[in-house]
């Protein structure tokens, strides 16, 4: 549990690799999501890549912010807050992917003119 809570420091090399692979997944899924046609398997794949890569990437990065900017006494509670937000982010994206239009279509909808 400590490796998850302090994902920037306690996870060591594995945490750095997870962050690196998350970056690569985001870099590959973003153009795929942009250029994929609505409802295609490529778009759905990108949505599910996002559902895991976004929370992992932000969890590790926010833990680095906690380490760098909070005093030691506040780091423990803040790390639980970061973990909670990471879980909520994952669940929210999965809800959009499974019972809604998906993350890609939701974001693309921000730029579509209303009917």
Automatic annotation (TrEMBL):
Pfam families: CybS (PF05328). Keywords: Iron, Membrane, Metal-binding, Mitochondrion, Mitochondrion inner membrane, Transit peptide, Transmembrane, Transmembrane helix, Transport. GO terms for biological process: mitochondrial electron transport, succinate to ubiquinone; tricarboxylic acid cycle. It is found in: Mitochondrion inner membrane. Heme b binds at residue 57. The keyword Phosphoprotein does not apply. Its main location: mitochondrion. It is a multi-pass membrane protein. A ubiquinone binds at residue 69. One of its GO terms (cellular component) is mitochondrial inner membrane. InterPro entries: CybS, SQR/QFR_C/D. The keyword Disulfide bond does not apply. GO terms for molecular function: heme binding; metal ion binding; ubiquinone binding. Belongs to the CybS family. This is Succinate dehydrogenase [ubiquinone] cytochrome b small subunit. It comes from Astrephomene gubernaculifera.
